Amino acid sequence: MAQSIGDAVAFEGPAPRPERAVSPFEFLPGWLCYGPVIAQWIALGLRHGDMSLPTAANPAIPTGGLCGERKTASLDLVSGAARDWVAPYTTLSTGNDDLARAERALAEAGLALPVVLKPDIGCNGTGVRLIRDRASLEAALAAFPRSVSLVMQRFVPYPGEAGLFYIRHPHETRGRITSVTLKYPPSVVGDGQSTLRQLIEADPRHGKLRHLYAARLGGRLETVPPAGHRETLVFAGNHCKGSIFRNGADIATEALTDRLDAIAQSMPDFHFGRFDLRYATLGALRRGEDFRIIEINGVGAEATHIWDPATSLWEIWRAQLKHYGASWKIGAAMRTRGARPSGLVPMARDWLLQRRLMKSYPLND
Fold it and tell me: What is the pLDDT of residues 103-133, one digit of tens each?
């Protein structure tokens, strides 16, 4: 825990380089990658007589966590001893005198800088900021529109980040991990001569995604990093923001599954979703130790291992259909037990709210 922030936002080693630096499917139009999922959703909706049936899979979360729900709606459900595995957080609604109110909220929650500031409603890392000091907290709060709910969460100084997908059908006594994604922040190492822009352009992956980094890095692009200095390009662990994803299926040991299942079962009627976390080492993660959960995503979660550059388009489709198909089976089972789907109109309303809010958020770190 003695690491500096700069060390902690870099992984314990550079991301392994597969034969392909960038997945040929990672940034294609959505209709190509998600077309089969949309077709499946329509077909199953017609069969079950409800286009919103998967929202019943996690009935304690608005829309089951499909869209428009607050991040804290899921995190708040973790109960008992399992809360020790969640990074502590508090919330703030932007308005007047934000800095003073934020500092009071942090103090009341027993939190101190650094923290991660992020929108309570949102996805894909939009608006996520790493707040190191009082001045950056004030600037970040001012960058958000008014009357927006924000989460201030303790920064977890573990170097690794991962996404673990969890599924438990209502009749099952134990859930399982169906997907593991290891997330690596993109970075370059200075040579003392090249500018940051040149280092990015020379990298087989980063050069193809330089448009994702340019707006965020701004004037830093023309600076020359010292020789041997590793410069992290993105903090938010999302592939659409330029982070590197690798399939970590071998991480899903019995010990880790038991740990995650205990956390998930501390949440009322939680059956389907992805746990995003930071961890100390891969060895510790395999043992189900030394990690902290930073987000819990429900029915709208994706098995993000599909964005490993080595993944074929067929595997992308197969994994998506398998996972979202499970949400329909769970939703149907929960409906027979009395859970009520959100309905198509409320589901669409929440989706539109989320899209509108995300357009108003500032750039992520």
Answer: 999 999 999 999 999 999 998 889 999 999 9
CA 7 to chain centre: 21
pLDDT at 68 (0 to 100): 92
- Average pLDDT for the chain: 91
Nearest to 206 by CA among 234, 180, 227, 179: 234
* Cβ contacts of 11 within 8 Å, gap of 6 or more: 159, 160, 161, 184, 185
CB-based burial of residue 296 (10 Å sphere; 0-12 exposed, 13-18 middle, 19+ buried)?
buried
Q: Which domains does the chain have, with CATH numbers?
A: 5-185+238-360 (3.30.470), 187-232 (no CATH)
User: SS3 string of the chain?
Assistant: CCCCHHHHCCCCCCCCCCCCCCCCCCCCCHHHHHHHHHHHHHHHHHHHCCCCHHHHCCCCCHHHHCCCCCHHHHHCCCCHHHHHHECCEEEEECCCCHHHHHHHHHHHCCCCCCEEEEECCCCCCCCCEEECCHHHHHHHHHHCCCCCEEEEEECCCCCEEEEEEEECCCCCCCCEEEEEEEEECCEEECCCCCCHHHHHHHCCCHHHHHHHHHHHHHHHHHCCCCCCCEEECCCCCCHHHCCEEEECHHHCCHHHHHHHHHHHHCCCCCCEEEEEEEECCHHHHHCCCCEEEEEEECCCCCCHHHHCCCCCHHHHHHHHHHHHHHHHHHHHHHHHCCCCCCCHHHHHHHHHHHHHHHHHCCCCC
Write out residues in the chain with pLDDT < 50, as ranges: 1-11
Specify the pLDDT at position 15. 54
Instruction: Answer whether 0.85 is exceeded by the pTM.
Output: yes
